[in-house]
Amino acid sequence: MKVEFDEETCIGMYQCVAEWDAFEEDKTKGKAILEDSEEIEEGIFVREVPEGAELDAKFAARTCPVDAIRIYDDDGEQLIP
Predict the structure, then answer these.
(1) Which of 44, 56, 57, 71 is most enclosed, with most CB atoms within 10 A?
(2) Which residue ranges traverse the bilayer (predicted)?
């Protein structure tokens, strides 16, 4: 499972931070950041979801008010949102 985070879309509500510790607040930017991620294109960050963190990652995606977080299964099919 992978998580994709669009930093440009993020509005800094930090609801994802409360749901999954892979997200942290970046007060200088006023946005969340996805720890241990790789920037695959400008402002788009991706990382694997560790085993046991799948539910937290899904909750983080569901709580994002602007759908800046997307979850994909191992086949690349988008699960959330």
Answers:
(1) 57
(2) none
- Other C-beta atoms closer than 10 Å to the C-beta of 4 total 18
Q: Tell me, what's the pLDDT at 56?
A: 97
CATH 3.20.20.70: does it fit domain 2-80?
A: no
Question: What SS3 class is residue 59?
Answer: helix
| 72 class by beta-carbon count within 10 Å (0-12 exposed, 13-18 middle, 19+ buried) | middle
SS3 71: strand
pLDDT at position 9, please? 97
Which tokens belong to 45? 């960050």
**Is pTM, for the whole model, over 0.85?**
yes
The span from the CA of 53 to the CA of 29, in Å, is 26
